[in-house]
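Q: Hi! First time doing this. I have a protein sequence and I read that you can turn it into a structure. Is that right? Here it is:
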Amino acid sequence: MSVILVDLVDEKHNLQINWWNWRPILAFLLEAELIDEDQFKRMGANCCGGQLTSSQAKKAAAFLEQEVILRLSDGEQIHTNGKVSIAPVESRPVSSLSSHELYATHKSCLESFVAFCNASNGFKAL
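A: Yes, that's right. Below is the predicted 3D structure, encoded as structure tokens:
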């Protein structure tokens, strides 16, 4: 399952992110007060009308670049609790993961999201 972020002006400009990576991104944006609870809920569910304006998207990108991505090396991921770890090479059953391991976003995913935000005219989450 994933979320598809679609540019508000150019529907051909989009980015798909799986939920495992998307949820921590939303949690970081909420914690930084770049989105509110309503946006968090809408953007955390399919087709619920969540969106960011161009200005909000650029602020989100700047925050993630300055406060989150700088904490990560290539091949690492960051969990919703802020813990940084090496991205697992092989999958394990979900039942064997601790709760903080369930949702983590990879550095490469954050970089893709930041690039999308900076190039977008704002976006809606589908």
